[in-house]
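okkk here we go again. third time trying to get the NAP bound version out, last two times i messed up the smiles copy paste (missing a bracket lol). double checked this time i swear
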Amino acid sequence: MRIVRRPVQFLGRIVPSYGLIVREDFPARDVGAHLDQPASRTTLTTTLGDHQSWSTEMPRTSPDVSRRTFLAMLGAASALGPRFAGAAPGPILKKAIPSTGEQVPVIGMGSWITFNVGWDQDLRVQRLQVLQTFFDRGGGVIDSSPMYGSSEAVIGYCLARLDETQALFSATKVWTPLQMLGAGQMADSRALWGVERFDLMQIHNMLNWEGHLETLLEDKGDDRIRYIGITTSHGRRHDAFEKAMAEQPLDVVQFTYNILDRQAERRLLPLAAERGLAVLANRPFRRKQLFRLFERHPLPGWAGEFDCANWAQFFLKFVVSHPAVTCAIPATSRVDHMQENMGALYGRLPDAALRERMIRYVESL
Ligand SMILES: NC(=O)c1ccc[n+]([C@@H]2O[C@H](COP(=O)([O-])OP(=O)(O)OC[C@H]3O[C@@H](n4cnc5c(N)ncnc54)[C@H](OP(=O)(O)O)[C@@H]3O)[C@@H](O)[C@H]2O)c1
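finally!!
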């Protein structure tokens, strides 16, 4: 993926929609808990139809930091932490996107909340380290959305400052009730990321999916995007989602799948396999809840049978070992967590018997 190094000059055009963050079904106190510096932001909340509430954030500091200054800040920051701790250990696990056979790494990165850091330079430098770790460890798929506040801008800001982004598989979403606004929103996303085209464009939460699908099919025909997808959150609109999966010319579907939320095993995952659709699994940690529930317990000794060194890898290897899952997209704001997560990109995966054992183990805790 070629990155166009020009993220800031577009901002004038997108400022009116910049800084939105939507809580899909997230309580306000949890959003606050995820913001690194809530006191630095001005937040307004309102209601937006099917999509609950959203808030705007005002930029706090100037975005105008030169590449040299930025790299100096990054160097200083790296001295403080385990940023590039060693080379990636061995071949990475990949799976194919069925519609083309293109292989992608099975661990990607989400960006909801975690990359929504606005203009704060310290936080941007820190997220740059997170993204650097992601690429260093063999990552490729990055998922975002115009719904995620400043996340797309921060991703673009980081991509423009990383030297090695060839592996990038860029995935974002169109999220507007009006089809006529879709093209402009996608152009804004390209500008924010600094990419000429997206690898994957998804219709976020099925919002006006019939309308946007028309646009996306045209875009794919004209080579403006490579793959088309639809997304949903845990348990939302699964019937409509299933119908679209069965009937529409999609490449990728995205929905929730983790060791506790396994409803997708009943219909969505088998249907994806039958229809030859790639699956991006969102919320692989059930946001943070799986850690809160289980990390105080010991990992079972047999986790070594599938090269699993910590709970993050246990949860992720469970998700990506399902035969119909192509890639899990965990989100993190931390380098050490990214290092843990990317460890799931290596070594063996559990087979069907071990997967059953994993389920029984967490259910016993
Ligand atoms: N409808 C849709 O299209 C839709 C819906 C939901 C999600 N998504 C996509 O899927 C992505 C993933 O879902 P999600 O962000 O909701 O939830 P998630 O990835 O299940 O969980 C993210 C949380 O896990 C924590 N975490 C990550 N790695 C960790 C580790 N190694 N140890 C401990 N904690 C760790 C993160 O906190 P730290 O920052 O402290 O690491 C963060 O709070 C989203 O970011 C988004 O891109 C799409």
